[in-house]
């Protein structure tokens, strides 16, 4: 009987479980959504305008979203190293396997406490080891590690969890954000600051959570939302995309590095706005490009990929991101200008990464509203 290699991957996001606040202000009485508030998983086919890929090298296609999370790469790399001992070669040389063999995203791009990746032989007890490791490292994850089929001989699993809480919850904005998608408008729920006021004590606390990284116009800017995490970044970029997600992220990082925004202008100024649509996506993708393909590695005759799937649950709202954030006085002459408007009402990029890495563990190019929460 042909033997199956099963690769099961989980990428889950949790964030902002408590509305943490700064030491000089009490937390808001309103409780943020708990883990259960994450969107449930749905088959990728139910998001017909979203491409889900396990790497960032794929093309950005007009009129489509692009969703990426690094957990599948972690499982693939574990299988390479701990099972095959070399790059995995599959029947027909599918391009997806080639990209995964490059291993662009590595364990070193993550802090050890945020993920688990394991692989090994079923008859050596790898499934029980994974379950025990998950129970010890992520006891509240609520993940059920599925039993392998009777033909499964090797099993790879990866889990990624991030909690990025805003110190002070942003405002849930009552005015509907009209997100422009092609010729259509989508009424999106949103959060942020409708009009920043220096005299407002609450706005003073919130404005520390926004850093303007680059600004060219109200339709071309990059900013980061600062959280209580000292290691992670949430970057949002309302820009024109490049040919691929990877090139788009690289272009954003290059602009950040060479930004001409003055230090005093990196904060929200009087009467400026920040409006961010609430992102909510839960998707399970089966990588049929890999499933049922036989391994071509020497000594692996008769083995094929029995399962290859990834679940991603992500939400960004006024409390933070869940993937299961000084005053300057100058004597310089400042030209008059209208207040900037940081409104994400057109296609934009969001990515999450650890500050010590150039490679994000989560990225989403948003061009259609199917990953946005509709305003009530």
Cα-based radius of gyration, to the nearest Å: 22 Å
- Helix/sheet category: alpha+beta
What's the overall geometry?
elongated
The count of DSSP E runs of length 2 or more, i.e. the number of strands, is 19
The CA-CA distance between the termini, in Å, is 54 Å
The parts where pLDDT drops under 50 for at least 5 residues are: 5-36, 325-335
Q: What's the main sheet like?
A: 8 strands, mixed
Provide mean pLDDT, rounded. Answer: 84
The domain count comes to 2
How much strand content do the residues show?
Answer: 25-35%
What is the string of SSEs from the N terminus onward? EEEEHHEHEEEEHEEEHEEEEEEE
How would you characterize this protein structure?
The structure is a single chain. The protein has 5 helices and 19 strands. It is of the alpha+beta class and 376 residues long. The protein has 2 domains: 3-41 and 71-164 and 280-316, no CATH class; 165-277 and 336-371, Alpha-1-antitrypsin, domain 1. Strands 1, 2, 5, 6, 7, 14, 15 and 16 form an 8-stranded mixed β-sheet that branches. A 7-stranded mixed β-sheet has the order 3-4-19-18-12-11-10. Strands 8-9-13-17 form a 4-stranded mixed β-sheet, with no helix packed on it. Residues 5-36 and 325-335 have low confidence and may be disordered.
Defining traits:
about 375 residues, alpha+beta, Alpha-1-antitrypsin, domain 1, 2 domains, seven-stranded mixed β-sheet, 5 helices
SSE blueprint:
Blueprint: E1 3-12, E2 42-43, E3 50-52, E4 65-69, H1 71-84, H2 95-101, E5 115-121, H3 126-137, E6 152-160, E7 163-165, E8 171-181, E9 184-193, H4 201-207, E10 210-217, E11 220-225, E12 232-238, H5 245-257, E13 273-277, E14 279-286, E15 303-317, E16 320-322, E17 341-343, E18 348-354, E19 362-366
Parallel strand pairs: 1-6, 1-15, 2-14, 3-4, 13-17
Antiparallel strand pairs: 4-19, 5-6, 7-16, 8-9, 9-13, 10-11, 11-12, 12-18, 14-15, 15-16, 18-19
